[in-house]
Amino acid sequence: MPNELPSPxxxxxRSLFAxxxxxxxxxxxxxxxxxxxxxxxxxxxxxLIAVLLAAARATRVLxxxxxxxxxxxxxxxxxGKGGRLTTLEIDPRHAEVARKxxxxxxxxxxxxxxxxxxxxxxxxxxxQFDAIFVDADKEAYPFYFTQAxxxxxxxxxxxxxxxFRDGRVADPKDRAAxxxxxxxxxxxxxxxxxxVSTIFPIRDGLLVGVKIAD
Length: 214
Hints:
Elements: H1 8-17, H2 22-25, H3 27-33, H4 43-55, E1 60-64, H5 70-78, E2 84-89, H6 92-104, E3 111-115, H7 118-121, E4 129-134, H8 141-151, E5 152-161, H9 177-191, E6 195-200, E7 206-211
Parallel strand pairs: 1-2, 1-4, 2-3, 4-5
Antiparallel strand pairs: 5-7, 6-7
């Protein structure tokens, strides 16, 4: 979702709970200079993710979609002692920018950027993760859901960004492929008996689920 000016309430939450330091604030300009899309999660969404990871005592996290590394910094900083973030990125330019972001934010030693298509990498993974954050190409979200449920440990967190797809999921006349895929992702999360889930109405919607059974 493109960066937008925060509402007064968003700004209140941001200033009180999620102020950006220099490393986080620099990501947008670094992405612009490198010609990357001007999109990233908001600081308040980053803090929500950090709180959820802390509650889950997560130490092993998988991120699908790295872009400039903004969300990855929030995730990496929230991990417990010995924590590790593996983040998947298909575009070499994005990966290069993200690595600079992680180094500047002081988390480069706990982040592994894996270059390649998530559709190809995910089926090769066999380790169990404490949390998986999905924020990549929307049409692949149903595939990502299936892989995430395979890779999440019991008690693990599934986090899916853009669950509202700019509000378009609520319009039955909108049959665009990306919107249909997001609806399917949301429905899969809502109906899977292995998952307890909901959508937090923060920014463009954050789907949050806890895996309760294998």
